[in-house]
Amino acid sequence: MSKMKNTIDPAVNYLLPLAKKAGIETVWDRFAAMKPQCGFGELGVCCRICWKGPCRIDPFGNGPQRGVCGADANTIVARNLARMIAGGAASHSDHGRHIALTLLEVGEGHAPAYRIKDEQKLRSIAEKLNLAPADKDIRQVAKEVALASLEDYSRQNYSIPCNWTKSTMTAERVDKLLDLGIMPHNIDAVIAEIMARTHVGCDADAANILLGGLKGALADYNGMCLSTELSDVLFGTPEPVVTTANLGVLKEDAVNIAVHGHNPLLSEIVCDVALKMNEEAKKAGAKEGINIVGICCTGNEVMMRRGIPLATNYLSQEMAIITGAVDAMVVDVQCIMPAITGVAECFHTEIITTMPVNKITGATHIEFREDSAIDSARKIVELAIDAFKRRDRRKVNIPDYKQTAIAGFSAEAIMAALSKIDAKDPLKPLIDNIINGNIQGIALFAGCNNPRTTHDNNFMTIAKELAKNNVLILATGCGAGTFAKNGLMTQEATEAYAGDSLKAVLTTIGKAAGLNGPLPLVLHMGSCVDNSRAVNVAVTIANKLGVDLDKLPLVASAPEFMSEKAVAIGTWAVALGLPTHIGIVPQIMGSSVVVEFLTEKAKDLLGGYFIVETDPKQAAAKLVAAIKERRKGLGI
Ligand code: BF8
What we know:
By secondary structure, the chain is an alpha/beta fold. InterPro entries: CO_DH_a-bundle (IPR016101), CODH (IPR010047), HCP/CODH (IPR004137), Prismane-like_a/b-sand (IPR016099), Prismane-like_sf (IPR011254).
């Protein structure tokens, strides 16, 4: 059997042998050392929620079929899955809480580092939330929108839906979620409810636990949605911007600062401050001043709003340090490998943690608070400049790989491009082309990378197949990172890979929008929380057609996912009615009830369902089949 490749990223392939030679351990080494991974864990039948255990169910039926308390495989698998969803929802919604609290501070005039950058968006959000903003002062509107968002974390009345989910769905979907009892009323309460119902001796009915999980996933959607929209208010709504991606964006003659993590509250201020400290960097010998680059979702945030180059995505974050050219890696929350401090010990790189609840042993901690954001950012940039002075030039190996990437396709940017074709009815050209089959459907790629499969390969293979089949492609998160690094966010990629009718549509829109050629093959919608942007586009189309989301030829794919957040996202995609592909075998296979619920029963209840397929070509075929089935349902 041939050995699976670690990655198809040329920059990583350049650096891995160098890491090996220098004895630096990477994620792929640790993954290899972990094999064989625990079979019980892989099936999800290991229970560790009380200390009578750990218990595990024998999947072959010879050993124990119940844990010490009597929980069977179905209960155990469902509980484990629901708890993962709660973890994901907690992460996204905590991010959203910080943004909402900051907007409140801005409204009250207490956060000098921040301001309202997109007033029009703020007013349109206030309209959607029924806050009658027309005659109000903009700071008052900010306060009211922030408070309406924070209400989604505090409401105690179970029968009132969360403001954001209710106001961003089709009416039919709202009714369906209410009917099923899975409409969230309060993000924090729903997460707490999952933890409570999965405590030992509580909910033992797998289907009921999964309904709780679906509610948790919708709470996740609510938190993501408000994170995205309020970030646009504070930092600007993305518009298409041309930039570059992959590790070749690092510069030998600059102080390279990598911003890594998720929340733009930190990265935006670091970028602002760094711009003002360019001269200090030059005085320290960096001819090109300061070069900020992004990693993971923070990378997406600053790429789409500022055109800052993307260095890399999740799985290759250590590689950025192994170039020897990163002077500081500034991190906030989520998806930061604890391994980075160990790698940084081999170089001069400062790893700077910034959040009180996210510290890493071996890192320098500079606390970042919204009220003193500029001071903290200044200290961070000063540390980076100091580190640059210590850089060992003999250890610098910047791979000569980078690609052009056109990023920043917010829902608003897509509508603006379409309005160049039909100003009165911007959606018409898109809908007409979906109905006439020039665009067969829309696929949203999301989620992480995972060493269980070749880094970036599933994303690239499936996207090229779908494009060939005239499917319009949207991307977020580390999937977006894959496409940016590997050249699919370019006009050339449209020429090379799009089917003829898709190419013609992308060319018409691109030319009308002044791009002098087609739109890129993959439209970059942003970070993981920005998956809500794709929902925004889908709901607009659904409302226009007068159908619910589960009728649209719209699919989602997380072909290399790994995080609890991705589990939550995939689950809400199903709850919203989307066929949702995952390319990694989920840790649920030990329960036939859970598998059947998520791949079949969910379809009856919600219209959406999971498709599990690890082979990327097969996955593409299944997604195309799901799109065709939807088209047939619509009679198109
Ligand atoms: O939120 S795609 S590895 S960085 S979890 Fe993490 Fe996964 Fe990347 Fe962004 Ni999303």
